[in-house]
Structure formats: structure tokens, C-alpha cells
């Protein structure tokens, strides 16, 4: 996974500027999954399943996530359902992933200055079973 480096990034139908722009992302930090590589181009997939090619200079290694679903989600003080709430986040909100411990249903996240835990099922930006510290 990577994130968008710039506030305006073209998603192209193929790996080169000669290919048409299919979509323009307009928010820095959005998470994308790399699914293929060709020279300096990366084929990516977004949280909605859209796929296309982005030049590697438009991508950042910083891990981010996007809140999914239709409901407000709660960031908690511990990786537990009944832990103290830290913040409530709306669908579409983007934040930074800090850690996803092995065998945990939660990841440590930071959203607009609030740091806490969010269930993996509430966002897109990690592979099933993926862990990192």
C-alpha cells in the first residue's frame, strides 16, 4: 500500500503519459494498493475497486487508510470494543496508520491529531492478516 503524494493525481489507462487520464484524485494522502509495476509506473487499486496507472513520483510510502461504510466510526483508547472513545470519524475520512499488530482486529491510527485504535473492519488500507509495527 502507498498513499498519494499530491493533491491532484492522474489515474491513467496505461503506464505512460500517452495514455488517457481516466480519473483525477484530488486529495493528498489517499491510500492505494499497488497491484502491478512497469518501469516508473505503478498500477494501483483504490478502496472502490477502480484501477489504473500512476507515476511513482506521485506516490508516497506513508501508510494511510480511508474510513469505509455508511456509519460514523469510533477511534478508541485501547484495542477493545468498549474502550474509552477518543474520536468519531465519518466515512471517507483519511488518516495515518501507525501499527497493525499481528492477530489483532484493531490498528493504531492517527486522525487529525487524535491517536487511538480502530477496528480493521472500519477502514480500507491494510491486507487481511497484514501486520506491521
Specify the biggest β-sheet.
5 strands, antiparallel
Element-by-element helix/strand order: EEEEEEEEEEEEEE
Radius of gyration: 16 Å
Distance between the termini: 15 Å
Total of DSSP H or I helical runs spanning 4+ residues: 0
Low-pLDDT ranges: none
Question: How would you write the strand order of the largest sheet?
Answer: 6-5-4-1-7
Secondary-structure-based class equals mainly beta
Number of strands: 14
Give the overall form: elongated
- What is the overall pLDDT average? 97
Q: Which percent range describes the beta-strand content?
A: over 45%
Structure commentary:
There is one protein chain. This protein is mainly β and 133 residues long. The chain contains no helices and 14 strands. The strands form four sheets. Strands 6-5-4-1-7 form a five-stranded antiparallel beta sheet, with no helix packed on it. Strands 13-12-11-8-14 form a five-stranded antiparallel beta sheet, with no helix packed on it. A hairpin with a 5-residue loop joins strand 5 (41-45) and strand 6.
Quick overview:
This protein is mostly beta strands and 133 residues long. It has strands at 2-4, 9-12, 21-25, 31-38, 41-45, 51-55, 59-60, 64-67, 73-76, 85-89, 94-99, 106-111, 114-119, 123-124.
Q: Layout of helices and strands, plus pairs?
A:
Elements: E1 2-4, E2 9-12, E3 21-25, E4 31-38, E5 41-45, E6 51-55, E7 59-60, E8 64-67, E9 73-76, E10 85-89, E11 94-99, E12 106-111, E13 114-119, E14 123-124
Antiparallel strand pairs: 1-4, 1-7, 2-3, 4-5, 5-6, 8-11, 8-14, 9-10, 11-12, 12-13
